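Weekly puzzle thread! Below is a chain. First person to post its structure in token form gets bragging rights.
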Amino acid sequence: MADVRPFRGLRYNPKLTPDLAKVLCPPYDVISPQLQEALYQRSPYNIVRLEYGKAPPEESPGLDRYTAAARLLEQWRQREVLVAEQSPAFYLLRQRFTDNLGRPGERHVLFGRVRLEEFSKGIVLPHEETAEGPKRDRLALLSACRANLSPIMGLYRDPTGRIAQTCQEAQRQPPLYQARDADGEELTLWSIAQAAGTEAIERALAPAPIYIADGHHRYETAIFYRDSQKGRGSGEEDAGYAMMGLMDLADPGLQVQGYHRVLGGLDAAAEARLTGCLESAFDVVAATDLPEQSQVACIRVRDLLTEQPSPRRAIGLADRHGRRFRLLALRQEAHARLRQQSPSVPELVECDPWVVQEAILNPLLASSPQGSAPTVEYVHDEEDALRRLHAGTAQAALLLPPLPLDLFEKVVRRGIRLPPKSTYFTPKLPTGLVIYAFGA
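Winning reply:
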């Protein structure tokens, strides 16, 4: 049973931060140095100073960016820049946005605290593998601040419709915040604090598994931190939960994009090996020349990936100059071979990120001489991938269509983890709307 509860959120004081958009930031893992600087300039209270702050000056002995964040968090609380809610609440976010095709979208996100569970219990389920580096970083921040500054993105199904009904009722009340961020997204936040609403949400979510959509490193870090706090008293119970932004899989505003693999460092031998991997496992089912104008080229690529003219699922391949695009479908014999690798989960062979990893990247990297392996970078924007090809910083791009949500759910419920960067759920949840502070 999923244990999802309201919490006393720590929120920005509108008297000191009247323009909420100036203090929000995106998740830490999409913040470049340039964006970090821009966020610093936007406001002295921008949450990036906590979530992904700059390193302190060298003349600050004993202070790193994690302890600096903890010190700043405490200062903001003392100055009432951040104030704690009087009573526990769920928080409802309505996010209105424009998607990558220029279409308007709207989705609803419910912020609550979710009891941390081992994945083996099947209550909270991951879908991607993780790396140690990001977990060390997030653990250092969590240990210093003793707070969840940003929400993990989770997905659920509510066949009863109770949560949707409760959220509709909440939107009849005056909101806590309204803001339009730098990307033009319209953000509106409500509180759900009355017992009838919080209990309805708790009951509806109890039987539903929760799928982690974004934030695997933070979730695994939170489990490690929870275990380290056992027997230490203060804040121990709070550390047994993590803040999540929960979305219904049936929400029409829930969008997922493909994550593309951009290959660099390919010498002649590596290019030959790549060609061999492609020719042995895939058929070319469509091909086209791409115009030099990148936005037009992106539209053509997206159309082909979305329309999927072949009855078999297909991936895209852009050549070293970004001028030629091919649509590749897995051959029947390769399909059968890959299916034998996971006979208990036949749906895996329909998951493009897994197919690309097993049929292309693993053989390519395994056969590369030590010290000269190609590089693989992950980008979610087709224009970015093509730009790298045009600039000569990459030699090939494997462009993947979005993973269908029904396929995502089937695979994840089987306890299978896909390769890193298999999905890009969009838009990202903003950091700074509400904070889950232990002991607040």
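Puzzle host: Confirmed. Bonus trivia for everyone else. The first helix runs from residue 33 to 42.
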